[in-house]
Amino acid sequence: MAAPELEKPSQPISAVPVRHPGRWVAVVVLAVLAAMFVNTVLTNDGFRWDVVGRYLFSAPILNGLQNTLLLTVLSMAIGIVGGIGLAIMRLSPNPVLTSVAGLYIWVFRGTPLIAQLLFWNFLAALYPQLSLGVPFGPAFVVFDTNQLITQFAACLLGLGLNEAAYMAEIVRGGLLSVDEGQTEAAGALGMSRAQTLRRIVLPQAMRVIIPPTGNETISMLKSTSLVVVIGYFELLTSAQRIYSQNFQTIPLLIVVAIWYLALTSVLSVGQAFVERRYGRGATRMSTGGSRMFGMGAQR
Amino acid sequence: MTTPMVEALGIHKSFGRVEVLRGVDLTVMPGEVACLIGPSGSGKSTFLRCINHLERIDAGRMRVDGDLIGYRERGGKLHEMRESEVARQRRDIGMVFQRFNLFPHMTAAENVMEAPLTVRRESRRAARARACALLDRVGLADKYDTYPVQLSGGQQQRVAIARALAMEPRLMLFDEPTSALDPELVGEVLDVMRGLAADGMTMVVVTHEIGFAREVGDTLAFMDEGRIVESGDPRDLVTNPREERTRAFLAKVL
């Protein structure tokens, strides 16, 4: 009584697929919501798209954008270099180095970033002069703190040193993820500890370090707006200055959002490329590319 | 009289309160293949790792080619060696691990080139030429630019042997080199080791392959509870063990 097409099991299966009515309901609901959203964006005059267009490439906005980029890149550079150093200290067999790094991370992660920015900005109140010389002895050069630590320098110190504390934990996690056998194999070949770290351990740790570092960079992009507390300016501050005068709050916030989204997109693409670079040898199928699609097997 | 390649005298090693090695003596002459067998936990791997100072010994003296390993004797006192000095000693001692420990982010050839490039500062071209020659020698002529994940266990272990040989060691240590392999892949690794032995390489091999030990080994030592229970000619020892513990162990594995 079996149907004829079921008699040959080697034939490709042509079965009736399971129906998913719930999915269709969800699609309809979302489609309606999307239509409502597009409608309001196009019809509500409050968005003032003409104002958005006028300010998107205006000089003050581009100025702010430049500062945002500069602060992000430099602070992240300080953060990453400092983080690697702190992570290596924390994993060192020397208990003094370990606890100094631990103390640093405790202080810089445990106090608000705004407070740290303010602290660096008002360092002159604590130390009007900074000098280079023999400890407890004579000084060779003396600087005026306010001249040495400009607003920009205070921003970098605040953002960068704070970031280093977070990066330290990210890098430490990456270093710990590398199998101990790797260090032993390198050691047995006669490689020094520094060579092993640079050539064997760090490149493998990078696979674990990069994704959260991408997170940190995108987060930093927006954290730079905190520099407003010490009177410096970047993208968001520039927009605020403009709408405090012309009251076009929403259009200028849209301008800012467009720029942040554009920068985040560029960073995401960059991250994918770096991940591919360090994913070499991680998967059987390719030399790393498949992880771009978020489904590469971990071996 | 020739200097022994390995001369271990009264080696002791504890991990915390567990005494893993309780006075191990072993002498391996140049060109000899010494095999170590014994139940798991008998200390044979730990002993092997003491030879290149991956483990620091608590008592005794370890000499390789006449040189004290990890320490310097001066004025009747032992001085710990600096990390760079230990690294220099290790250059001459190749090691092959149970779990291969290849560098996964490098191709087979890059794995073999790594130590000559970073430790001996060879030129890339010279290192590459040697790496290719060594990979040819272990039968992987078509795998130069393959990453370890894409290789079978047996192929990975052969790359690991080539990597150790790239530093032109005087002594090769094998830590259960076939224990992590599927049975059908064991032969290809043992073949490479057989070839090395035939070329006169001094080898210390921790293994469960009694057949290999009997065929290739010049000496066979049976370890149990941190001591060498008996040692001697492999054929004699396998067919005619003197000690009861050796007999019991061999009965289980043969």
TrEMBL record, chain A:
GO cellular component, one term: ATP-binding cassette (ABC) transporter complex
Signal sequence range: none
GO biological process, one term: amino acid transport
Membrane-spanning residues: 24-47, 68-91, 103-123, 225-243, 249-274
Keyword NADP assigned: no
GO molecular function list: transmembrane transporter activity
Limits of the ABC transmembrane type-1 domain: 65-271
Annotated membrane topology: Multi-pass membrane protein
Keywords annotated in UniProt: Amino-acid transport, Cell membrane, Membrane, Transmembrane, Transmembrane helix, Transport
Key word Transmembrane present: yes
Family under the similarity heading: Belongs to the binding-protein-dependent transport system permease family.
PANTHER family named in the record: L-CYSTINE TRANSPORT SYSTEM PERMEASE PROTEIN TCYL, MEMBRANE COMPONENT OF AMINO ACID ABC TRANSPORTER
Protein name per UniProt: Polar amino acid ABC transporter permease
